[in-house]
Design goal:
The protein is of the alpha+beta class. It folds into 2 domains: 4-104, Helix Hairpins, CATH 1.10.287; 120-423, BirA Bifunctional Protein, domain 2 (2-Layer Sandwich), CATH 3.30.930.10. It is built from 13 helices and 16 strands. The strands form 4 sheets. Strands 1-9-10-11-14-8-7-2 form an 8-stranded mixed sheet. Strands 3-5-4 form a 3-stranded antiparallel sheet. A 3-stranded mixed sheet has the order 6-12-13, with no helix packed on it. Helix 3 (24-66) packs antiparallel against helix 4 and helix 5 (142-148) packs across helix 12 (392-400). The longest helix is centred in the N-terminal third of the chain and has 43 residues, at 24-66. The relative contact order is 0.14.
């Protein structure tokens, strides 16, 4: 969440940065936050004065009693002050909660260098790698390839769980597993991340910490009256791993990698691509998470993005990197790069990684701090990105490496994990 001191001291700056996101409602919420903050601080000042008055009167009562004088009038006044204090305590508690809920609903401020734009159509391409593959013969999409080679069974998956689910089979299941293991080994062995295998169920506080809640609750699978959730991404358990802790500066950056299945209702995706395995309710993902000092977070953001790109480079897949403009930034992000792999069968780019720097926005929600060289406790910066997400990678890979004879060639770097050079 935003720092209330920043909102209080520089409201015009905060409003101007939020305005680049294109939401007048978010800008208007700042005035509401300031109103509640003023009421809360006024009540706190009154409380301090009342507590001081009660303390002073209590001393006077003690003096009168020691001298054998009546203190009944003062005692009546102390009781009245006690009632006022109780009422003000209720008011300040309510104002605290109201202010917190307002701040939880306001997105992060875009980084000053983020390109200003209204939506995804204005996202600039930062770079691309290799060229689009020149395939000979008819180009089949992943659905046709997967059906022909029995790599997955969407009809039986629907029978098991409904639409929007995948059941990988045979060589398809093996390929999915090979890709996961390849990525985990790459990020731990070459990029220096610590592997974590977290729980797949997370508490509500953790979902609030990484900004899925309260804004996106409709997209989540909740249990126990929405106090427990199926993880929508490994970002949630892994970023919250050190929540409510004070880390040592010399241990930063913390670099974690984790594989988890991801569960999302996709309640807001009506009308978007649903054919095949492009948009589903459950999918596998290898996630990269960093916890850093503020001074280093943008350098770490660049290296995290490069680590995710390396997956596609080693697999020989054409991709491009775009930077999200202010109108397309995620709720909690200050700066984001999307990595989009080329899908010959879709004749389109598919997002397989979104690498974001949240600055201290998430850390404030989860009270994640570090002690700096001067001994001051400061909020960490948190970053994450898919390293990378499946099954879009799966789809792009089999479409890119389809052969004229109907087989699929396995990239050389993946062959030791898959145990063969092709799928027939």
């Amino acid at each position: 969440m935003l720092d209330i001191r920043l909102v209080r001291e520089q409201p015009d700056f905060v409003k101007s940065r939020l305005a680049t996101r294109g939401s007048d409602e978010d800008v208007a919420r700042i005035d509401e936050v300031l109103r509640v903050d003023a009421e809360r601080r006024k009540a706190e000042t009154a409380l301090q004065q009342l507590n001081a008055d009660r303390k002073r009167l209590s001393k006077e009562i003690g003096g009168k009693r020691s001298r054998g004088e009546s203190s009944e009038e003062l005692e009546t006044r102390v009781r009245e002050i006690g009632d006022q204090i109780a009422l003000l305590n209720e008011q300040t508690t309510a104002a605290d909660e109201q202010q917190k809920q307002l701040l939880l609903g306001i997105p992060n401020l875009p980084h000053a260098a983020a390109p200003v734009g209204k939506d995804a159509s204005e996202n600039p391409v930062v770079r691309s790698w290799s060229e689009k593959p020149a395939l000979s013969g008819p180009v089949l999409d992943h659905v046709a390839l997967g059906t022909k080679l029995k790599l997955f069974d969407l009809e039986r998956a629907a029978k098991l769980s409904g639409s929007g689910f995948i059941c990988f089979t045979g060589a398809g299941a093996k390929l999915e597993r090979a890709l996961i293991n390849f990525m985990l080994d790459l990020h731990t062995g070459e990029h220096g991340y610590l592997e974590i295998s977290p729980p797949f169920l997370v508490r509500r506080d953790c979902m609030i910490g990484t900004t899925q809640l309260p804004k996106f609750e409709a997209d989540m699978y909740g249990l126990e009256e929405n106090q427990l959730f199926l993880a929508p991404t490994a970002e949630v358990p892994v970023t919250n791993f050190h929540r409510e802790e004070i880390l040592v500066a010399s241990e930063l950056p913390k670099k974690f990698v984790a594989y988890t299945p991801c569960f999302r209702r996709e309640a807001g995706s009506a009308g978007r691509e649903t054919r095949g395995i492009i948009r589903v309710h459950q999918f596998d993902k290898v996630e990269l998470v960093k916890v850093t000092a503020p001074e280093n977070s943008y350098a770490e953001h660049e290296s995290l993005t490069a680590n995710a790109e390396r997956v596609l480079q080693l697999l020989g897949l054409h991709y491009r990197v775009i930077e999200l403009c202010t109108g397309d930034l995620g709720f909690g992000s200050a700066k984001t790069y999307d990595i989009e792999v080329w899908s010959p069968g879709q004749n389109a780019y598919l997002e397989v990684s979104s690498c974001s720097n949240f600055e201290d926005f998430q850390a404030r929600r989860m009270n994640l701090r570090f002690k700096d060289a001067e001994g001051k406790n400061r909020f960490c910066h948190t970053l994450n990105g898919s390293g990378v997400a499946l099954p879009r990678l799966f789809a792009a890979l089999i479409e890119t490496y389809q052969q004229p004879d109907g087989s699929i060639r396995i990239p050389e770097k993946l062959q030791p994990y898959f145990g063969a050079a092709e799928i027939r």
